[in-house]
Every structure is written in C-alpha cells, then in structure tokens.
Amino acid sequence: MSKFYKIKIIKVIFFSIFFSFLFSFINIFFEKNISYFKNAYDFNFSTETDERFYKYFLLKTIPNSKKFIFGNSQATTLNPIYLGGKINEVVNISFSGANIEEQLSFLEWIVNNRNPEKIYLGLNYYSFQNLDFNSKMPLEFQKNILKKYLRSLDINNFKIYLKLVKIKLYNFLFNINPKDQSKHFYLGMRTYPNYFNITDLHNGIFDYNKKFDQKKQFNEAKNSKNFIFEKNLSHEKFIFLQNFVEICTKNNIELKIFFEPVNKIQLLKKDSFILKTELEVIKKIFAHTDVSNIYYFNNFNKINLDNNYYFRDLIHYDYDAGKLIMESINKKNSLSYIVTKKNLKNFEKFIVKKINETK
Predict the structure, then answer these.
(1) Angle of the 235-250 helix axis to the 100-113 helix axis, nearest 10
(2) Are 68 and 93 in contact (CB under 8 A)?
(3) What is the pLDDT of residues 155-182, one digit of tens each?
(4) What is the Cα–Cα distance from 358 to 105, expressed in whole angstroms?
(5) Long-range CB contacts for residues 193-200, cutoff 8 Å, separation at least 24
(6) Which of 28, 121, 306, 326 is the most buried (most CB within 10 A)?
(7) What does 154-177 look like in DSSP terms, one character per residue?
C-alpha cells in the first residue's frame, strides 16, 4: 500500500473517531441539560422517546420533588397528588415494562439528587422475570463507561434534541412565549387522549370524561392483545429489590409496596398463571428481602371484578381505579389484601382457594 493511501486511511480513522466523540458529547450534554427545553419537550415529544427518558425529564425539571410513584404502564393512571404535599413535590415516574433493576437505577439517582420522603412501588408478576423489552435508560444512569459511550451514539436521540433546539430557536427569534404543559403532563400521568377528555379542576385534581360507551369499549378491550409473559424468575431481581429497600431505610424514605390489579378474566388465563406467579414472587420477596408488608390488589376486589375500570385492555385500569388504589394504600382499607410474613400462609390458602374455585 502506498504512503498516499496510508495517510488517507489514517485521516478517515482520525475524523471518524473525532466525530463519534463529538456526537457522543452532544448527546450527553443535551441529555444532562434537558430541563432547558421545559416548554419545548411536550406530550408529542414524550411519545417519540422511551418513557424512561420522559420520566427522567420530569425529574430534571421538578427540583422540589419529594414523593414518587414507581410502577409500570398500569401505574401511569395513579395521581401522585394523593401522596400528599404540593403539586411541585410529587411525580409519577412509572413507565412501560418497568423492572426492579430499572426502578433501582431511578431510586439511586433520586437519592443522590433530590430529598425523597415517600415512595409507592408498584410491582407485578413479570417485575422479576428474565424479561428484556429492549428499553433505553438515560445515559446518566449507565454505570458502564463503554456502554454509555455506545448508547450516546444513538442517532434517534440526536434527532430529538435537534428538534428541540429548532423549537427553542424559533420561539426566541419570533419572541414566542410557549404555554407550560398541563399539570397532568408534569405529574407524570398518561393522558390517553383517544379515550378521555381531561379537565383540570384544582391543585392537581382532574375530571376524566370518558369518550366511549363502556360496554362496547370493554368488549374491544377483552379482544385486544392481552399478553402474559412467561419467562423464568431471576434471583438477581430479588437482590435488586432488597437493595431498593435498604436504600429507602438508610435514607428514611417511607416505602409502600403494592401489586398492580388486572381484570379477573386476565387473572384466570393460562390456568391462573398470573396468580400462581405472583404468589411465588411474594413468597420469594419475604424469603429474600426485608419487605414487611405488601398491598395486594389481585384479591378479586371490585377493581378486578368490575369491567368498567378497563378501557384499553384487561391490564390497564382507568383513573377511577387508580384513585381507589391510592386511597386504599393511604387508609389501609379492605380493598387490598395486606400480606405480611405472619399471614403469608393464610394468604397462600386464600389464593389457592380462589384458583380452585375457578376450575
């Protein structure tokens, strides 16, 4: 190979490395300063990015946040205002397909950057499975430097930031003062615009007017793709939960753990797979962690039995059900089965009985 081509190759390699590092730096810089785009990052942008990024954005833009709801997509209808406190102190950081390892990463960031006082942690049967949704966590949460660098080369994130910069620049040049997003958006709740008209009443309380006929809509929900994940449980995930509990204890954070409700039809599918798996998971939680009690909402209560609480599928409950869940945890009423180490055997008998009654 001639000297000329060697120089060409060296230049190509050099510029490739240079631009990859520059591209990485831009992505990392904009992510770290995402709060600057508060009035540009809106509901439409939140649907273009992984929900984990949307909840990271909320954490960055709500510096006074103290009380949090953790959960998967089901929990996005839970209003964090029922945690108590001011509207700028509460946020729902639930997201689709959340597993306990991801939730632990969010908790670690919160403890290092905020002053958390209360957390409601929502779990379900697949929270501890060997299940991968190919999700993308914020770069700041990535501890492995190489993985962080490779993730920072994601062209999709760069496109999002470029759009946000264009909006900011446009607003600046034409002296446009954009309106803040709705309180609903900043509380971290899903809006489901195709199903509900949402009216802001006062101080984080909303009215949800349904756009659909409930009976007809439930038939559609019943016939939708109601997945049941059947992966093996991971012992490592229970270690992550123990770490979660220890961090809360060490930092004097009030922690309440609950299991998300689903419709009875879903509970009984595949020979009551969800019920059997959640029973196994709860037994392992008490065997391997310091969790003292669990609010269990698949005890065939009215949320499980009343079809009117479901509109999209048999898994995602509506805002009315979400309010019932929050009130039940706050007041420790009889809607949920409060499971402890002492009554674990009675709980097991209760679940087994319910399973046998449906055969």
Answers:
(1) 20
(2) yes
(3) 777 777 777 777 777 777 777 665 556 7
(4) 39
(5) 195/311, 195/312, 196/319
(6) 121
(7) -HHHHHHHHHHHHHHHHHHHTT--
Q: How far is Cα 271 from Cα 262, in angstroms, rounded to an integer?
A: 15
Nearest by Cα to 178 from 32, 37, 35, 31: 37
DSSP state of 358: T
Residues 231-251 have pLDDT tens digits of 999 999 999 999 999 999 999
Task: Spell out the alpha helix ranges (H) of 251-268.
Answer: 264-267
DSSP-assigned letters across all residues of 183-209: HHHHTT----TTTEEEEEEETTEEEEE
DSSP secondary structure code for residue 310 in this structure: B
What is the structure's pLDDT at 209? Answer: 93
Tell me how crowded residue 199 is: count the other CB atoms within 10 A of its CB. 11
Q: Which residue has the tokens 């300063």?
A: 33
- Rounded distance, CA 35 to CA 304, Å? 39
Q: Three-class SS of residue 59? A: helix
Residue 221 near residue 313, CB atoms below 8 Å = yes
Q: Write the DSSP string, 277-296.
A: HHHHHHHHHHHHS---EEEE
HSE, CB side, 13 Å, CA atoms: give it for residue 349.
4
Say if residues 92 and 65 touch (Cβ distance below 8 Å): no
Query: Do 67 and 80 meet the contact criterion of CB atoms below 8 Å apart?
Result: yes
Single out the residue of 239, 280, 200, 212 nearest to residue 99, CA to CA: 239
CA 42/CA 82 separation, integer angstroms: 24
CA 307 → CA 10, 152, 328, 350, distances in Å? 66, 44, 19, 23
Alpha-carbon distance values, 40 to 140, 171, 176 (Å): 21, 9, 12
At residue 320, the pLDDT reads 96
Mean pLDDT of 265-289: 96
Whether 274 and 355 have beta carbons less than 8 Å apart is answered as no
The pLDDT of 252-276, averaged and rounded, is 96
